[in-house]
UniProtKB/TrEMBL annotation:
Transmembrane segments: none annotated. Its cofactor is pyridoxal 5'-phosphate. The lineage of its organism: Bacteria, Bacillati, Actinomycetota, Actinomycetes, Streptosporangiales. Belongs to the threonine synthase family. Residues 25-320 form the Tryptophan synthase beta chain-like PALP domain. It is an enzyme of class 4 (lyase). One of its GO terms (biological process) is L-serine catabolic process. InterPro entries: Ser/Thr_Dehydratase, Ser/Thr_deHydtase_PyrdxlP-BS, Thr_synthase-like, Thr_Synthase_bac/arc, TrpB-like_PALP, TrpB-like_PALP_sf. This is Threonine synthase.
Length: 354
């Protein structure tokens, strides 16, 4: 019998901005698997752990923040919540809004989000607007709308509630490992999750639950790496659509996480991202969406550059589920043998020994 009832009703509640008056709108998010990667550990000489955030109810880490944001919106009597998204935030917002009986309005860049994520928003009953522009355009319009209409903004920008929820990933890691790791790797798009993950480690450290702090290593796709270049990118490009962001809203938070932790924010190519994406599934049995492999690609890149000392304990956030983006998965093509339904034919197709 599971005793887990989602983040708001978990031991982490004390760190969340909720009160007894807050209705807990939950899908039992959080408490995700932390798996040791034999493959990455032996390859790097480190102890590498994978935080599988695709195991959250809508398939990404966004649920951690959304349970808080939607619960508080419901408490305030909001009727409509609004967000811009590369796909996962909209899927999560739509699900939690459905559960709370609220309307979700989601703005997405037309033709640029994975179909699984769009399908989620459709199925959860969101009001969907496809914008002829980038995610950054969607976010600009969303903020303007939220300033002039009675809607609750549930993007992490200016929404401390989302970040507070997303901090819980660090609490779970420390509780599972007994202390903070040496390095925490993760993909970076709009900058919210690196901000929240670092904030979580700091909170736990200050409270005495961890004796140390990790270095935070964030990775952007090289065609969408404004934080690496130090300037916004007008036309961000990467096949990892979730992190196709040219002007991160949590810019300052991301840079602070890097500076305060003595970490780094670096770029990895799409080739590196997709190589990591394939290897994670084939070697560790974990199917992530392409953007989620950026942390793994980044770790391997640092290792190849001689920047990763052996013996470190490393945690990598795998931010979203591979099932969200089947186009990306099948783009390579695949091989399968067609046979009749005769057992002997199937045995031959499988090249099974007699
Ligand atoms: N990984 C995945 C799967 C994401 O969906 C995102 C962001 C990130 C990593 C990066 O996190 O933005 O906090 O730096 N997705 C947002 C969205 C932009 O709209 O779903 P971040």
């Amino acid at each position: 019998m599971s005793t887990w009832h989602g983040l708001i009703d978990s031991p982490y509640r004390r760190w969340l901005p909720v009160t007894d008056d807050t209705p807990a709108v939950s899908l039992n998010e959080g408490n995700t698997p932390l798996l040791r990667s034999a493959f990455l550990s032996s390859l790097t000489g480190c102890e590498v752990w994978l935080k599988v955030e695709g195991a959250n109810p809508t398939g990404s880490f966004k649920d951690r923040g959304m349970t808080v944001a939607i619960s508080r919106a419901a408490e305030r009597g909001a009727e409509t919540v609004i967000c811009a998204s590369t796909g996962n935030t909209s899927a999560s917002a739509a699900a939690y809004a459905a559960r709370a009986g609220l309307t979700a309005a989601v703005l997405v860049p037309r033709g640029r989000i994975a179909l699984g994520k769009l399908s989620q928003a459709v199925r959860y009953g969101a009001r969907i607007v496809e914008i002829d522009g980038t995610f950054d355009d969607c976010l600009r319009v969303t903020r303007e709308l939220a300033g002039h209409h009675p809607v609750a903004l549930v993007n992490s920008v200016g929404n401390e509630l989302r970040l507070a929820g997303q901090r819980t990933v660090a609490y779970e890691v420390v509780d599972a490992l007994g202390d903070a790791p040496d390095v925490h790797c993760l993909p970076v798009g709009n900058g919210g999750n690196i901000t929240a993950t670092w904030g979580g480690y700091r909170t736990y450290h200050q409270a005495g639950f961890a004796t140390r702090l990790p270095r935070v290593w964030g990775f952007q796709a090289s065609g969408a790496a404004p934080l690496v270049h130090g300037a916004p990118v007008a036309d961000p490009r990467t096949e990892a659509s979730a992190i196709r962001v040219g002007n991160p809203a949590s810019w300052d938070g991301a840079i602070a996480a890097r500076e305060e932790s003595g970490g780094l924010i670096a770029a990895v190519s799409d080739e590196q991202i997709f190589a990591a994406y394939r290897e994670l599934a084939r070697r560790d049995g974990v199917f992530v969406e392409p953007a989620s492999a950026a942390g793994v690609a980044g770790l391997l890149d640092q290792h190849a550059r001689g920047q990763l000392e052996a013996g470190l304990r490393v945690v990598i956030t795998l931010s979203g589920n591979g099932l969200k983006d089947l186009d990306a998965s099948l783009r390579d093509g695949y091989t399968a043998t067609e046979t009749s339904a005769v057992t002997a034919d199937v045995a031959r197709a499988l090249r099974l020994a007699a």
